[in-house]
Specification:
- It is a single chain.
- The chain is α/β, with parallel strands linked by helices and 321 residues long.
- The chain folds into 3 domains: 5-91, Winged helix-like DNA-binding domain superfamily/Winged helix DNA-binding domain (Arc Repressor Mutant, subunit A); 98-168 and 272-319, Periplasmic binding protein-like II (D-Maltodextrin-Binding Protein, domain 2, 3-Layer(aba) Sandwich); 170-270, D-Maltodextrin-Binding Protein, domain 2 (3-Layer(aba) Sandwich), CATH 3.40.190.290.
- The protein is built from 11 helices and 10 strands.
- The strands form 3 sheets. A 6-stranded mixed beta sheet has the order 4-3-5-10-6-9, sandwiched between helices. It has a two-stranded antiparallel sheet with strand order 1-2. A two-stranded parallel ribbon has the order 7-8.
- β1 (55-58) and β2 (61-64) form a beta hairpin.
- α1 crosses α3 and α5 packs across α11 (285-304).
- The longest helix is centred in the first third of the chain and has 26 residues, at 66-91.
- It holds the Pfam family HTH_1.
- Keywords: Activator, DNA-binding, Transcription, Transcription regulation.
- InterPro entries: LysR_HTH_N, LysR_subst-bd, WH-like_DNA-bd_sf, WH_DNA-bd_sf.
- Belongs to the LysR transcriptional regulatory family.
Length: 321
């Protein structure tokens, strides 16, 4: 009969892990406070359940077999999840506290930063919040290093060590000074894009790859300046120094003040926006609750129209991959 996952006994797995750490049943018996015959019987039952030997006993003690090495890795993971779950249940009704670092791309920060900060401060007053604003390429690197707990990222998919929860899809527009854009057509094709002097972030950021892929269908790009500072980039575009490729959330105030105009591209340039985190950190109950609130605030902004999007999140999209 095939062993079902729910039939694995956590007490036996824990005992097995301690034996591997101590290197012998006798030392594990002392550490656990379990009689050696009873401990030996637990391992025997575990081997019977699995249908294979997991410990090699010899004169110097006990070491895991090849199958035991595989089991040991899984045992640590299962025990960590079990402990985190118990901790989360125990603190479910307690007020979260601790340090949380969130990275927001400059474009998204325009619409998300203030509502999110206010909401998290009101919802979790004991949480010490650190919000970092930078271009998405930098944030992704800091997330991988563990400097950030969360990062809003563009066009990223989950990795073995990072999980990405999609929030929405955004459309990218050609953006320029209102007066300079007045007589332009309603859509910009790849053949037309090469005639606009562009101000773009440097090559490590996702928008450059999307722009190059779009321009490859036409006559290429005319990049006049590289600016890795969102505020200056938008100001230069608004003043007529060049054109940019931006989502509407990045120029929300400028659009409202009619200082810039946004013209869609044809075919459309779309990017997926996700909130990403290291998988190992998602065992922290405080971070899980903060993640829920980031998603809730994002949904509210999208529903109200304050965050212009193409495709809003659905329950299935929001689960990550």
């Amino acid at each position: 009969m095939k062993l079902l996952p729910q039939q694995l006994n956590l007490s036996r797995l824990s005992a097995f892990a301690v034996i591997c750490e101590e290197g012998s049943l006798s030392r594990a018996s002392l550490r656990l406070g379990i009689a050696q015959p009873a401990l030996s019987n637990m391992i025997k039952k575990l081997e019977e359940d699995l249908g294979t030997r997991i410990l090699m006993r010899h004169a110097r003690g006990s070491t895991p077999t090849q199958a035991g090495e595989v089991l040991l890795k899984g045992a640590y993971e299962m025990l960590a999840i079990a402990n985190a779950t118990i901790s989360a249940v125990g603190t479910a009704n307690q007020e979260p506290e601790g340090d949380v670092a969130i990275g927001l791309p400059a474009a998204t920060s325009t619409v998300l930063a203030i509502p999110l900060i206010k909401h998290l401060r009101n919802t979790f007053p004991k949480v010490s919040l650190r919000v970092v604003e930078a271009f998405s390429g930098y944030l992704w690197g800091w997330l991988q290093e563990g400097t950030l707990d969360f990062a809003i990222s563009f066009d990223r998919t989950s990795l073995p060590d990072i999980v990405c929860h999609p929030i929405c899809d955004e459309e990218i527009f050609l953006v320029g000074n209102q007066e300079l854009m007045r007589d332009l057509p309603q859509k910009i094709t790849p053949e037309m894009l090469g005639s606009f002097p562009l101000i773009l972030p440097s090559t490590i950021h996702g928008i450059r790859m999307k722009a190059q892929a779009f321009a490859a269908l036409g006559s290429g790009l005319d990049i006049r300046m590289e600016i890795d500072a969102s505020t200056h980039l938008v100001k230069l575009i608004a003043s007529g120094e060049g054109y940019g490729l931006l989502a509407k959330c990045a120029i929300y105030d400028e659009l409202a003040n009619h200082t810039v105009k946004a013209i869609p591209l044809s075919p459309p340039m779309i990017r997926q926006v996700s909130v990403c985190a290291q998988r190992i950190k998602m065992k922290d109950p405080v971070l899980l609750r903060v993640l829920d609130e980031i998603q809730n605030v994002s949904r509210d902004l999208i529903a109200s129209g304050k965050w212009p999007v193409v495709v809003p999140p659905s329950p299935e999209r929001g689960r990550g991959r």
